[in-house]
Amino acid sequence: MKLLFISGDTALAQGKKGPFYYLLEEFSKYWERIDIICPKTSQRVFNIFGNVFIHSSNKSRIFHPWFILKKGVEIYKEQKFDIFGIHSYPPFYNDIGGCWLYNKIKTPYVLEVMHIVGHPKAGDFKEWFYKILNRIFLRFSAKKAKAIRVINQKQVPEFLKKVGVGTEKIKYVPAFYIDLDVFKPYNLGKKYDLVFSGRLVKNKGIMILLKAIKKLIAQNSSLKTIIIGDGPLRPRIERYIKKHSLQENVFFAGWVPGTEDVAKIYNQSKIFVMPSFNEGGPRVVLEAMACKVPIITTRVGAMIDIIKDKENGIFINWDAEDITQKALVLLQDDELRKKIAENGYQTVQQFERRKTIRDYADNYLKLANR
Predict the structure, then answer these.
(1) Is residue 121, in this structure, part of any structural domain at all?
(2) Which residues in the chain show pLDDT less than 70?
(3) What's the pTM value of the predicted model, to 2 decimals?
(4) Which among 350, 366, 2 is positioned nearest to 176, based on CA atoms?
(5) Which regions span the lipid bilayer (predicted)?
(6) Cα separations (Å) of 353 from 22, 180, 291, 367?
(7) What pLDDT, on the 0 to 100 scale, is given for residue 43?
(8) 284: CB partners within 8 A, 6+ apart
(9) Residues with Cβ within 8 Å of residue 333, at least 6 apart in sequence
(10) What gap in Å lies between CA 182 and CA 63, rounded to an integer?
(11) pLDDT at position 12, please?
């Protein structure tokens, strides 16, 4: 069986080992060949794992739908792939190009909707506008899809149903491939009270978290927080830290390339905090849970499906005072931390990497064989 992915991920063509790379490392074992079309990068064609071929555009993003059509037809003539997947996200270049490709070759496709940008809460006007576009484009791109893959059971399916997507097309297939050989409890001392991991962008709620950290430090001057990740908000975050004299309390790990290094930082932290406005998962919360680190999170994405409040995690609102109070309770109650950490650890075992990827591959193979 042969597969084509229309993806927005450019890290593969740049030689970076991100989540998509680690997925393909296992996923590729189930396919004779996988081709991936992605936006413009410095690379043109790149091969990994022997049977995965990355085709990056030579055009700017606005012309990406035409590249998808042209390259997709070219690959189909050479390889005759059995099915293709469209990674759907604003501004929907993948959806447009993928639908054009379907109209040309009539090969079945799966629309993958990881999360709805701007839903349930928008980080800025752009995300609010993208939420509106989702209502328009998802109805269009889902129309001829063989299935719509979602990675949470409530938030995205409910949105899709409201915009007119039939329930029979929506298929829940988790995308949380947790390597339990890496993300696991280590016998390490706790250097940090709080840890955050994610891209430093508005929808991650990082500025709200900083306000909460400032309040926590007012009550405990020795409190330490480490931030894993990088992004466009970093200069603003650094200015905030400097303005409020938090340099001795908040530390940047930056982008940490090795999963083992990320797991060690989680293990060195008492609490993982995720104040996101909108997410599909987020996967990083599950990674922390696998390390037996208690988590506090907003009600986004898969968290609504997985977390039972005060049992295997604690829910927070998009409010600095609420984050402060709930973090304080957890920091001050060793038994509650242990209970949530143990229950979270047990919960996340269902997302073991190889099993979850095998289920993902099986779903695609079944759809291709129908």
Answers:
(1) yes
(2) 43-45
(3) 0.91
(4) 350
(5) none
(6) 10, 7, 15, 22
(7) 67
(8) 197, 198, 272, 274
(9) none
(10) 40
(11) 84
The verdict on 332 and 313 lying in the same domain is yes
The structural domain count of the chain equals: 2
pLDDT of residue 45: 63
Q: For the CA atoms of 273, 277, 280, 283, what is the dihedral angle to 10 degrees?
A: -20
Contact 192, 223 (CB under 8 A): no
The total number of residues shown for the chain amounts to 370
Both 166 and 199 in a single domain? no
Residues facing residue 192 across a β-bridge: 269
For residues 30 and 262, give the distance between their C-alpha atoms in angstroms, rounded to a whole number: 28
Q: What are the residues whose beta carbons fall under 8 Å from the beta carbon of 218, sequence distance 6 or more?
A: none
Q: Is 185 a member of any domain?
A: no
Please answer whether residues 293 and 273 qualify as being in contact, where contact means their C-beta atoms are separated by less than 8 angstroms.
no
The pLDDT assigned to 44 comes to 65
Residue indicated by tokens 């069986």: 1
Structure tokens at 156: 């995205």
First-to-last C-alpha distance (Å) of the chain = 13
